[in-house]
Design brief:
It contains 19 helices and 9 strands. By secondary structure, the chain is mostly helical. It folds into 2 domains: 194 residues, Fumarase/aspartase (N-terminal domain) (Fumarase C, Chain B, domain 1, Orthogonal Bundle); 300 residues, Fumarase/aspartase (Central domain) (Fumarase C, Chain A, domain 2), CATH 1.20.200.
């Protein structure tokens, strides 16, 4: 990736997906500077004329009717940043924090927020020097924007915040020195512009999208491996079945299953068996996985638009200063909740497939995939862990967006809870990767138990990848380390290039 120039209109999910690994230098475009400066001039004109405009010369929230005198306008912005820094909980991850900085800078670059270019350049200096503000994960209800978390970001610019660089905690002026920037002297509207916005909600949802995509593509490979472990039927993947359903995601997933399964010795060995149909968790993988893919595609469309949006309030259009509600993160809450439901279903189905492999449905396998059932328990308790995580996810999948709680003396009386939707989506995905790791361990063992028969080259490659992380199961042993290491490897994309190259960015394309 070459250097990234922010215009406010051209940031893509691909930029955000690749940012942590490719790390381009980010700068403001000249067009963005002009757009921003024009809105700054409008703010200055409001101050000169004394026209009453929310957020410039009034209080905030339920205090919006309080007119602020001209000699207090700068202090108003500092008071806003300091008073709103009320976040609690563990800091957001470095990857999420980098995306927050990038999204915030890009949104301000559009030029509707009345903030000077040099303030955004300071944000980009933090990003380019990898000086990452310490942003507590909890404290935002997703309207009016992500105020508390973004206040902690804003504190770093005025020399009062905390940040990390290379694992070292920095405070106050040391943060500014590490980024090579002077302390920002806030002007009218600038504190509010930094705090008001949906960038924390967006970054969490985007991280969820990226992790869910990895989980889905991994589940396709692992599901095909499970099918071979069960000596299951290939007929449910026939192209004609999916063509008449006419759902794009389903047809795509079925095609990849056909690619992965064609040419297997295991499949050839059980032609003519009397098992007519497999249970739904095996037979309906294209239908469910395809629905998950279509869900992620919808989320990607919403999030791609949000990357280049203005979620501040008030907004400046020429000489007009308009108060609205773009800070309301309901669109992000909805898609995060939708992805949470989809990811939970991936885990529920994976747990069922693991259970099937332990039941001796395939007569070549032993109960619980143990070498000596009774003396050994095999994968009995690994499945219990998968069941526990799958059940936990069902509770976490309850939509955050159906909840609301009034704040600011009732002025902010309906909120989105989008940050919580995003955070619990990430909890679900952490559980999901562990559930998939357990299925992968069982599926690899089930395939190996059918030697000397082999599956397809693609799936043998998958088995080999799994074995690089977890040795073959040759008797009862601790499995917690295997599960943990494999879950982390799956989350990092261990099996993604097993799929054809056209998997690419699906379903984000």
């Amino acid at each position: 990736m070459t250097d990234l120039s922010l215009t406010g209109r051209d940031l893509t999910l691909t930029h955000l997906a690749d940012f942590d690994t490719r790390r381009p230098a980010v700068k403001l475009s000249e067009s963005a500077r002009r757009q921003m400066q024009a809105s700054v001039e409008t703010v200055r004109e409001v101050m000169r004329t004394g026209r009453v405009c929310y957020g410039i010369n009034t209080g905030f929230g339920a205090l919006a009717r309080q007119h602020i005198s001209s000699d207090q306008l700068v202090q108003l912005q500092y008071n806003l940043v300091r008073s709103h820094a009320c976040g609690v909980g563990q800091p957001l991850s470095p990857a999420v924090t980098r995306r927050i900085l990038l999204l915030k800078a890009n949104s301000l670059a559009i030029g509707n927020s009345g903030i000077r270019p040099e303030v955004v350049e300071a944000l980009l200096a933090l990003l380019n020097h990898d000086v990452l503000p310490v942003i507590p994960a909890k404290g935002s209800v997703g309207a009016s924007g992500d105020l508390a978390p973004l206040a902690h970001l804003a504190l770093t610019l005025i020399g009062e915040g905390e940040a990390e660089k290379s694992g070292k905690l920095l405070q106050g002026k040391a943060v500014l020195d590490a980024a090579g920037i002077p302390q920002i002297q806030l002007q009218a509207k600038e504190g509010l512009a930094l705090l008001n916005g949906t960038q924390v909600s967006s970054a969490l949802a985007i991280e969820g999208l990226l992790q869910a995509r990895t989980a889905l593509l991994s589940a396709i490979v692992i599901g095909a491996l499970t099918l071979e472990g069960l000596a299951g039927s290939y007929s449910p993947f026939d192209e004609r079945i999916h063509a008449v359903r006419n759902l794009q995601g389903q047809m795509q997933v079925a095609e990849w299953f056909r690619n992965l399964l064609t040419g297997s010795e295991i499949w050839k060995s059980h032609q003519g068996c009397d098992r007519v149909q497999d249970p739904y968790a095996v037979r309906c993988m294209p239908q469910v996985f395809g629905a998950v893919g279509d869900t992620l595609a919808h989320a990607a469309q919403v999030l791609a638009r949000e990357c280049n949006s203005v979620s501040d309030n008030p907004l400046i259009f020429g000489n007009d200063v308009l108060s609205g509600g773009n800070f309301h993160a309901e669109p992000l809450a909805f898609v995060a909740d939708f992805m949470a439901i989809a990811a939970t279903e991936l885990g529920t189905m994976s747990e069922r497939r693991t259970d099937l492999m332990l039941r001796k449905i395939n007569p070549r396998l032993e109960m619980f995939l143990a070498r000596a059932p009774g003396v050994e328990s095999g994968f009995m308790l690994a499945h219990v862990t998968a069941a526990a995580l799958a059940s936990e996810n069902k509770t976490l999948a309850h939509p955050a967006s159906v909840d609301t709680i009034p704040t600011s003396a009732g002025q902010e009386d309906h909120v989105s809870m989008a940050p919580w939707a995003g955070r619990k989506l990430l909890q679900i995905l952490e559980n999901l990767h562990a559930i998939l790791a357990i299925e992968a361990l069982a599926a690899a063992a089930a395939v190996e138990a059918q030697r000397p028969l082999h599956t397809t080259p693609e799936l043998e490659n998958a088995v080999a990848r799994i074995r690089e992380t977890a040795p073959a199961h040759t008797g009862d042993r601790r499995l917690d380390g295997d599960i943990r290491r494999l879950a982390a490897a799956l989350q990092a994309g261990l099996l993604l290039d097993i799929l054809p190259a056209d998997a690419g960015r699906w379903p984000m394309a």
